[in-house]
Amino acid sequence: MYxxxxxxxxxxxxxxxxxxxxxxxxxxxxxxxxxxxxGIEKRHISTGETTTDLAINAxxxxxxxxxxxxxxxxxxxxxxxxxxxxxxxxxCQVQAAIGAENATxxxxxxxxxxxxxxxxxxxxxxxxxxxxxxxxIGAEVLSKTVDWEDRSxxxxxxxxxxxxxxxxxxxxxxxxxxxxxxGGLSExxxxxxxxxxxxxxxxxxxxxYMFMDGRAVYxxxxxxxxxxxxxxxxxxxxxxxxxxxxxxHQANARIMDxxxxxxxxxxxxxxxxxxxxxxxxxASIPMALYDLQEELKPGDPxxxxxxxxxxxxxxxxxVWE
Length: 321
Ligand code: ACO
Fold this sequence. Notes:
Layout: E1 3-12, E2 17-19, H1 20-23, H2 31-38, E3 42-44, H3 51-66, E4 73-79, H4 90-98, E5 104-108, H5 114-127, E6 133-141, H6 151-154, E7 159-169, E8 174-181, E9 189-190, E10 211-212, H7 214-233, E11 245-248, H8 253-263, H9 274-277, H10 284-292, E12 301-308, E13 312-319
Parallel strand pairs: 4-5, 4-6, 11-12
Antiparallel strand pairs: 1-7, 2-3, 6-7, 8-13, 9-10, 12-13
Helix pairs in contact: 3-4, 7-8
The structure holds acetyl coenzyme *A.
């Protein structure tokens, strides 16, 4: 088994950003409601940038910062629920765009836990020696999945991508990582795929948009996240007090505050950038870690925690280097 290090990161967002006040042109809402219920102030919305574009741009930045040759990358995993194509995968399009000709490339769908699911696969692959470098990307254009007349969902989401390159290393910085799912709760968050319509069936009539039972999601998140954070620390030499920052999936500031309270950890240890980007699903954790980079010092222990549709969740304990 080898050690694994987080080598570099990249981020990409659409140029257009939209404030809460601007949303009042589309739906009956207010800046006050959105800010007080969620902590979101604005979000970036695609005016043509695709999920693939964002994934490629984030990957290019991570690659540039890493200093490696793209041909050294052995694995590319893109976590997304908003790929532009079912086939080819977003990961294969990234592979072609960055010239990672020796990589195995595929997408995974684990919603807002997608980056952590991808990181689990990638770090396991690096750890056992399957590859020396692995690229994991969370990329979403969620603005195409919401009903822009439904104020209960369209105000929450944004578009963006974050990328990370993991490297085989003599020192191990990824201390622990685990993921879990519970398909029994799947109905609280759904997004349909291509509807069934064929020679035997007239097109089914379900809504094409994202559905969210907000209260059920809140309950799931505030229950599973504290448990998930404690679980990733178990069996390590780190305690909650040792952790410099917690980076949760950026869904809702109230979820983060509730988790901080349950764990009896100061809320300022929970990094937030959702006021700027909204909920970007699989992209939110790498985008948040990217934004926090400047503040981190070598040796800082950090916990990442994702939770989302499926339902899925997972956490990573890493030491910044
Ligand atoms: N603007 C104004 N009013 C609104 C809006 C809006 N954008 N959306 C809903 N309302 C109204 C409702 O219609 C309702 O009105 P009524 O009482 O007249 O019927 C009222 O506000 C309260 O609605 P609730 O859904 O009960 O609002 P709640 O206080 O529960 O907040 C929220 C909703 C923010 C979604 C909350 O349930 C929550 O935080 N859930 C967690 C879900 C989440 O974070 N999802 C992110 C995506 S999933 C993920 O990333 C894992």
